[in-house]
Structure formats: C-alpha cells, structure tokens
C-alpha cells in the first residue's frame, strides 16, 4: 500500500515524500549552523564583552567538535542503529541549541557549541544513509540531488538569516530557531523512519585512538585560539599545548597505523591520488572558510555595515554555485577531473585577487561581486575533487576514505579560521604602526581646528581613520595570501592520477 514500508526497506507514496523532506530539513539545519554565526560574531562579542577574535571561538569550537564526531558515525550506527543515533543526535542538537541561546558567558557558549557539534557531526552522513535506505536504487540520484541541494543552499541562507535575526531580534535567536526544526524532525523521524532501522551488533571501538584524537586536536585548537593573546611561545602554557599537540599527533599516527579497527583509517593515505587530493582540499577549504569568517567581521567593524547587509554581501558566493552544480556534475564524466579542480581553485584565487583592491571607500557591489564570481568556481572545486579522492582508493575503502576526507575538511576550516584570524590581527597592528610612523598630523590638526574641532576631537577622528585603514590593509593582505594558497592547491592536484573507475560519491559527506 501507498505510504507503507516496501520489501527491502524502501518507503513509497506520501511517507516517502515526508521522510525525504524531514531528512533534507535536518541536513539543511546542520549545514546552516556552520555559517549562521559568521555574521553574528560582532553582536555576540559586544553582548558578552569579548573581542571579535575571541568571538571566532564560537565558530571553530563547533567545527572541531563536528570533525571529531564524524569518524564515530559508522561505529555509532552499527552499534545502536542508524535511526536511533539520528533521533538522539537531533534531540541533543536541539537541547544544546537552547543552551547556546541562553548562554551568558563565552565559556558557556563555547561549551554548548561543542555539544552542538558533537550531536550534529553524525547527522549529515546519517541523513545521506537514511535517504539511500528509504529511496529505491532507481531513485538514488534524485535523493542525492535533494541532499546536495540543501548542502549548497544552506550556506547561502546562513549569513542572511544570521544577519537579519541578529539585527532585528537578538543573536540568541540564531540558536533558538533550531528548536522547532529539531522538534519537527524528531517527530517525523519517530513516525516515518523507525521501520528503516538498521540491525545492530556489539562492535569494538578504538578507544585509544579516539582519546588520542581528542587530545591532540583539542590541544592544537586551544593553542591556535589562545596563542595570540598569550604572545605565542613566550607563554609557558602555549608551549606545553604545542608539545601535547605534537607528541599526541605522533602517537596517534603510530596507534592508528597499527590498530586493526582504527577510528580514523590512515591506511588510505598510501594511495597517492587520495593523499594529494586531500592536501589540495584542506588548503583550499581552509582558505575559503576563513574568508567567509573574516569578510563579514571586517564589513561590520570597519565599513559600518549591519549584520544583515554583511550577510547579503557574503551570501552572494552561493548564488552562482547553485546554478553551476548541475553543469559541473555533467562535465565530471566527460572532462578530466584534475582540469576541473585546477580551474575551479584558480577561479577562487582570482576572486581573492579582486579583493586585494578593496578599500574603505568601496561600495556594496565592489564587495559583493567577488563573492558572486567565487560561486562559479566552487562546484568545479568540490564535486570533481570528491571524484578524484574516492576514485584513488579501493572500492571497499570508499566509506573510510570519505570519512577521513570529511574529517580533514572540517578540521581544515577550523584551523584555517584560527590561523587567518591571528594573522589578520597581527597585520592590523603592523599596518597601524606603519601608518602612524608616516603621518603628518599638523595639516590635519590645523584644518579640523579651523572647522571648530577641539584637539581631543581631532585625535579621535584621526585615530578612527587610522584604525579603519589599518584593518582594511590587513584584510587585503589576507586575501593576497589566500590567492597564493589557492594557486598552490590548484597546482598540486596534477600529481593525482586520473581515476580509472566510476566512483559512487554518495559515500562522501
């Protein structure tokens, strides 16, 4: 009958449509939360009495927690069942969203964002798995198209939603809006998906590898986030964090290579194509994600943009990506994927070069146009690179390789954000020092004094202009560095062998 579970675990009729909508909405919400806070950082920083650079911890903490939890998804699903893990993850995501919105200190907010990331990490691959379980094989292409569309559209709407909510209500609501979505998805999952549950078995988990993974990643991220404030390695605490991160990473490598069932299967790195593809992905995605964090902060702190308009300017990067994704999907089977990836990453580098010419007198479209242009290159980068990476490993290693790739991509985004924010802050200080050393203040003092400004007012005006220009110079330096990294990522992809077999990219997430 229509709406009943068919043999093989598939749904049909209205139940299939509703279940697909629930899973698509879940994926949309989880991806949305990776970008919705980007434009809200100045609001949150002002409310909690912290610096904007400290505010980026809200973004990096979520990304790191999500990255740590992704490798556990397969074990969790096998041990407790796909649907049970999905339901518990949704409930946890909703509860931590409530706590994020209620946070009154930076520590509480970061802790709750970590909880959000731990619960949300498995949801993205689980929605993919469940879509493939409830749709018949002949409908898998449509199912993955639905999933991919939410993955592409969510980052576009994230900055717009975050800016609009922060300006018109308060930043707390960027988290509270998850509550009705979580409630709806949990209800829908309980009613529609329980019959698609997978069998469970007692599986061993690589506890040592997991502990080492958490240890070195936590030490590294804390070091990157706190280093600037503690004068880096002139601080004993930062030195110890660096030692723990380095030693922990080396022990983790040795452990995982010798472990029979590793939490992160490092054996896939024996394939040159996979290794090179992941290096290119990590550098390019770290640079791309860092710019998505820095641009809205700069527009609000230096250019006087509201969070809403900063969101509009940032979101243009996803508009062209929506239209180009189907084109790239068709070209992937006809054109050498290395050429597509190289062209796409170089295109991202070109958009970064255009930003090098930004100045404090530029208008909205000067800022929005490179974002729009960037969107044309994004699908050429992400889609063929997945094909290259997964096509380089053995068919039975595809799931493990996809998990490793997702883990490293997410970690790269968090680490790239921390490093670029630190470079941005240091470049601002250097630029300010150079501007001040070359200033001739007497003509400005005389001109403004003639217009009735007091000496203190003149100093205030000059200081504000110096701060604005130094921040702008630092921002353009970041984009010049970004362009160089994009060129590097585009070049090394040619060390990857061309795939010799068809690849099932549905394993990627």
Overview of this protein structure:
The protein starts with 12 loop residues before the first helix and ends in a 17-residue tail after the last helix. Helix 14 runs antiparallel to helix 20 and helix 19 packs across helix 20. The protein has three domains: 194 residues, Growth Hormone, Chain: A; 57 residues; 243 residues, Growth Hormone, Chain: A, CATH 1.20.1250.20. The chain contains 20 helices and no strands. The N terminus is likely disordered. The longest helix has 40 residues. With 509 residues, the chain is mainly α. This is MFS transporter. Keywords: Cell membrane, Membrane, Transmembrane, Transmembrane helix, Transport. It is a multi-pass membrane protein.
Characteristics:
3 domains; 509 residues; mainly alpha; single chain; disordered N terminus; Growth Hormone, Chain: A; 0% strand
> Helices and strands, in N-to-C order?
HHHHHHHHHHHHHHHHHHHH
Average pLDDT number:
82
Can you count the helices? 20
Number of domains: 3
| Intertermini distance | 33 Å
Query: Looking at CATH, which topology of the largest domain would you report?
Result: Growth Hormone, Chain: A
Under the CATH scheme, which class of the largest domain? Mainly Alpha
Give the name of the CATH architecture of the largest domain. Up-down Bundle
CATH homologous superfamily name of the largest domain? Answer: MFS general substrate transporter like domains
Low-pLDDT regions: 1-8
For the largest beta-sheet, the strand count, sense and barrel status come to: none
Structural class: mainly alpha
Number of strands: 0
Share in helix: over 70%
Radius of gyration: 24 Å
Our estimate of the beta-strand percent is: under 5%
Overall morphology = globular
